[in-house]
Amino acid sequence: MTALGTGSIASSSIELRNVVVSAPTANDDVTILHPTSLSLGEHRVSVIGGNGSGKSTLARLVNGLVAPSAGTVGIELAEGGARRSLDTRRDGAAVRRNVGFVFTDPSAQLIMPTAIEDVSLSLRRSHRDRAARQAAASAALERFGLQHLADHSVHTLSGGQKQLLAVASVLATDPAILVADEPTTLLDLRNARMIGDLLMSLPQQVVVVTHDLDLAARADRTLVVDDGRIVFDGHPAAAIAHYRDTVSQ
Ligand SMILES: Nc1ncnc2c1ncn2[C@@H]1O[C@H](COP(=O)(O)OP(=O)(O)OP(=O)(O)O)[C@@H](O)[C@H]1O
Question: How far is the CA of 227 from the centre of ligand 1 (A)?
Answer without folding.
Answer: 10
